[in-house]
Amino acid sequence: MRVSRPLWRRWVLLALATSVALGVAAVGPSAGASEQRQENCKTPRAEKPEAPGVFGSLVAGDCSAIVGAKIEMSLDGEVVDTIVSGADGTFSLALDEPGTYTATLQVDSLPKGVALTDKGDTVRTVPIQADRPRPLLYSFGESTRQAATKLDEIPGKLVDGVQLGLILAMCAIGLSLIYGTIQLTNFSHGEMVTFGAIVTWYLNQSVGLSLPVAGILGVIIGAASGAGLELGLWRPLRRRKISLFGLMTVSFGLSLLAINVFQYVFGARNKPYTGTVGGGGWELGSRVIPARTIITIIIAVVVLGAVAAFLRTARFGKAMRAVADNPPLASSSGIDVDRVVLMVWVMGAGLAALGGVLYSTSFQVNFMEGQQLLLLMFAGITLGGLGTSFGAAAGCFVLGLAIQMSTLYIPTSLRNVGALAVLIVVLMFAPQGIFGRRERVG
């Protein structure tokens, strides 16, 4: 028997989780980045890639490393890769073939107050030889920025957290609905995210479609793949009375198969889209927020709002919720359960594909991106409550905030640790998740 937790308690728990996610900034080291300034103007040495390739270091006039600057490498008018400078300002990129490349420094990716000595020196012609890598050097004037404090970084991290949280929420809704309707923990859901991103990349790069058109077609193809999997794989397996453990094992094997196919067909390198929507950006704290980030957030909010309205008001949406709550009772009430499950797979795969496209506009396309997001999706769903679409969205949103805000005081490579800490704290108070329902046994 299920016992509903009072609605006010759910909102209190959500507010608590969000406060923990945002509060990580307050417990970090004290503000004052002046201590991090380099005493000696020594340029860090970049690791040389295997030839052919480029490498270098980006250092401002005050000897501070330029982090997160982007340089697009193009060959014959097509962008082949995008360089992003690391935490010490260095970068290294191996290229597939020699040739005369064009290196374009993205000025809007430079930190606030940092500019080239020659502001017209953003585009370079770079001959790349097959036998040795080539250094790529830029000259920056004296930085006019003030030492960034932790408080300066908070607005930018907050925007990053909102973006990641909304993308995770979009991807996880389908995973949660699938679990709610057929109790399948689908380990291959991450590959639906990757599939949408890769299909969009091929439509954008090989076919030459604009990114918005390629993205829409990629989402449609991704949704169709969900229908194909349900009709060709999952429904026949369920009719053969395969156990849930067996279905879960099949999903794990399907995930491994898809990852290897993606790596073979797409390759192991990160690849950007061409003609990313939204140039320029806005200054916020110590960061310049790219326009594509704001566009991603707007699209995600609109889509999530539309999904929520559909599930709450549309007849078919109510049928989905009824099947998720009690499939036998829904079937006896005249609801076509098989049709509802099919639509859940279509919606879940389409949302996952859209999430993959939006994620890749900022982080590029990678054959493993869905698998990297899958653990966070599971954590967000557990945090919000298994089988509830709204709970999955809320949990993933809180998790996204926790991940990005935690990087204020821990290394980026450990950022998921902060998210899992939030998960543990909330589950101590609500073992069924924020919007989950307690069950009475016996």
TrEMBL record:
Major subcellular site: membrane
Membrane topology qualifier: Multi-pass membrane protein
Keywords assigned by UniProt, alphabetized: Amino-acid transport, Cell membrane, Membrane, Signal, Transmembrane, Transmembrane helix, Transport
Bilayer-spanning residue ranges: 161-179, 209-232, 244-266, 289-311, 340-361, 373-402, 414-435
Keyword Transferase annotated: no
One GO term of the biological process aspect: amino acid transport
Xref: InterPro entries: ABC_transp_permease (IPR001851), BCAA_transport_permease (IPR052157)
Region called Disordered, residue ranges: 32-53
Family: Belongs to the binding-protein-dependent transport system permease family. LivHM subfamily.
The protein, known as: Putative Inner-membrane translocator
